Amino acid sequence: MPYKIAVVGELETVMGFGLAGASHLHVHREKTETLRKLKEFLSDPEVGLILLTATVREELAEELEPLHRLEGIIPMVLTIPDHRGYYPAVDELERLVKRTAGVEVILK
Amino acid sequence: MTKAVSGISPTRMELIRLRQRIALAQKGHDLLEEKRDALMMEFLGLVRRIRELSKETFGRLSEAHRKLSYCMAWMGSAETLQATLESRKELKLEISTRFIMGVKVPMVEGVRTERNPVQRGYSLHTSSALLDETSAEFERALAQLCELAELSEAVRRIGLELERTRRRVNALEYILIPQLKSMAAFIAFRLDEMERDNFVRLKRIKAMLERREGGA
User: Fold this and answer.
1) Does B62 contact A at CB distance below 8 Å?
2) Tens digits of per-residue pLDDT, A22-73?
3) Does domain B26-173 sit in CATH 1.10.287.3240?
4) Which has the closest alpha carbon to A95: A104, A86, A106?
5) Which of A9, A87, A108, B116 is a Cys-bridge partner for A13, taking CB atoms 3.0 to 4.6 Å apart?
6) Which residues between 23 and 42 in chain A have a beta carbon less than 8 angstroms from any beta carbon of chain B?
7) What interhelical angle do B129-171 and A11-20 show, nearest 10?
């Protein structure tokens, strides 16, 4: 079954992926509005992948956490750097590695 | 070492049953341990791939953003936004699921994000060639992001399964098996004790009988 791509972020990010053909777009301006939109995307059976910029994700971190846990395999949610290239040094992956492996793992 | 354990009767039947349970728990423990190690290998392999891929993808994304800002400077941001709105938004992903070590993970199939300028749908004679380049760059970035999303989701799920498996291994190793073993040891101790009792009792009776016979 074909799925569509949703993008939530700053204007630049949304514009870029809009050009690339992503269909569900939302420009982040205000917290509650973005949150409502995100819930909509998460429950939309058409959406298969949600791209979220790191800035927005951090702003919504607390509210997003319970949403993310509930969600099944689809849609997938991926955090991407914003247009200024901001991306947290310790991202989810690092936290997950630390929690499951018990140590920080450095792979060359 | 062998402290009294309440609720079990020190019989031979109970001891046999306990030994069976220990063997079973041990077997389960070994199997789970193997699963845990295999999951760990899978997990670390995925982590490595994600780290490599995300580095590359994020580099590509920042390049795409750079092109976009050039484009906005060249064409004007209003015109670029206009082109964005005009762009055809029909990109579709095929997502299916597969199993890694019994863990359900998503699989994105054959992402074809790249298009030629005509397919994109914005007006060609009002837009700059920079816009085409920008779009192409974002399309390429998007293809890699899809793959990255697939791997991230897989790693998240395998991580959760790994945690769960490890908790079960530890519960068996440090709680259930020691408990069963101490119960078994307690029963064995009591049975030995009873046998010694009996032995002494028989000896005494034999001595008493001999004495009586000798006296008579």
Assistant:
1) yes
2) 888 888 888 888 888 888 888 888 888 888 888 888 888 777 766 665 556 7
3) yes
4) A104
5) A9
6) 23
7) 100
Hey, is the C-beta of A81 within 8 angstroms of any chain B C-beta?
yes
- Contact criterion met (CB < 8 Å) for A49 and B149: yes
List all residues of chain B from 111 to 140 with a beta carbon under 8 Å from chain A: 113, 115, 120, 122, 131, 134-135, 138-139
* CATH superfamily assigned to domain A4-101: ATPase, V1 complex, subunit F (3.40.50.10580)
pLDDT in tens, A63-101: 776 666 555 677 888 888 888 878 877 777 777 777 777
In angstroms, the CA B87 to CA B25 distance is: 61
Residues on chain A touching B80 (C-beta within 8 angstroms): 15
Sequence-distant (≥ 6) Cβ neighbours of residue B205 within 8 angstroms: none
AA letter at B10: P
Q: What ipTM did this prediction achieve?
A: 0.84
